Amino acid sequence: MIIYIHGFGGSGEGQKARLLRQALKKEGIIAPSLPTHPTLAVQTLRELIERFRQMGPVGLIGSSLGGFYALHLSQSFESVRVVVINPSINPDVTLRRAIGPTGGINFYDGSRYEWNEAHIEALKALRPTVYRSENLLLLTQLGDELLDANEAIEALKGCEQVIEEGGDHSFSGLERHIDRIRGFLR
Which CATH superfamily is domain 2-185 in? Predict the structure, then answer.
């Protein structure tokens, strides 16, 4: 089973989620819409991984903040293979800009929610301390307008990496890498 983990403000109905759900349906994939609080999101993912591991291997694909969550979870689940797409390596720093009563936005329906210091502290507590490079594939584009791709390239040294010039935070042309993702998660 493959679990796609969306980014900040995303959902299981986002563009990447729909693309991956369609492209990897034979492999079995879910793309849950996660709670906005980091601790609750990771707890939900942990429960899904534990349940699906009873039925067979589990792989994770995480984008942006979802990549951060996937990296965190990979510390606990050694056999889980992880693909991260333009991952956030330091969301406790980059998501400070969202602090405020309506700083969080749900891109699915346009609703807003409060993002506060407690969310930032939760992200700090989730920061990975170990990266299992043999189980990681990084897909990043240097044209990411929201995150510095070099942070991920440096933090994930030693793992398989696909680094592209240009692009954007959404990772333009992700469909070109479906076979590589599929092969890596097998």
Answer: Alpha/Beta hydrolase fold, catalytic domain (3.40.50.1820)
Write out residues in the chain with pLDDT < 70, as ranges.
none
> Cβ(37)–Cβ(65) under 8 Å?
no
Residue 1, classed as helix, strand or coil, is: coil
In degrees rounded to 5, what are phi and psi of residue 98? -90, -5
Q: Contact at 8 Å (CB) between 117 and 175?
A: no
pLDDT score for 58: 97
Buried/exposed 35-70: b ≥16 CB within 10 Å, e otherwise:
eeebeebbebbeebbeebeeeeebbbbbbbbbbbbb
Six token digits for residue 72:
């965190």
Contacts of 82 (CB under 8 A, 6+ apart): 59, 60, 61, 62, 70, 71, 73, 74, 135, 136, 137
Distance CA 45, CA 51 (A): 10
pLDDT in tens, 45-75: 999 999 999 999 999 999 999 999 999 999 9
Report the half-sphere exposure of 39 (CA within 13 A, side-chain side): 7
